[in-house]
What does this fold into?
Amino acid sequence: MIVIFNKYADKRRERKLNIQRWQEEIDDYRGWNADEAIFRIIGNIKRLNSHNITKINLSYCYLENACLGSNPQRFADRALGNLSPKDMGLMNQGYLVRSVATGDEEFIANLHGAILINTNLIKANLMDVNLSDANLYRADLQEACLHYADLQGTNLRSANLQCAFLQAQK
It folds into this structure.
């Protein structure tokens, strides 16, 4: 009985240490304006999400062109009928169909309650991402794809939504 309890306690301690390490790694990449930082931050978001951690502090993170949402091609297929001629032009320029930095085309982040103050999300794919109750105060979301993103209760005060692609939940 004691052996089982010790194994359980070890697993809980290991999980807690991993979560702390992943959050510290995000802290290490905060403010670093490089593609490597994006890749590593996304990896840590995935790991935290796999342990049901959604309230992640991503303030001052550089996530330009990051793909946190669903497959951009699936977005194009699903929303094609709703796109205006202007949007079609943007799509042809590559603004809507971007290469996926993570290599995981179906990754959908759960950022419920996340802190994204002053975060650079220019041209980020946030399609289908759960951003409910997140704090995006002064976040830069220029040309970001927010189609079907859950924005219920999200703080978007002073956020830059210039040319962002928004569409209500399905």
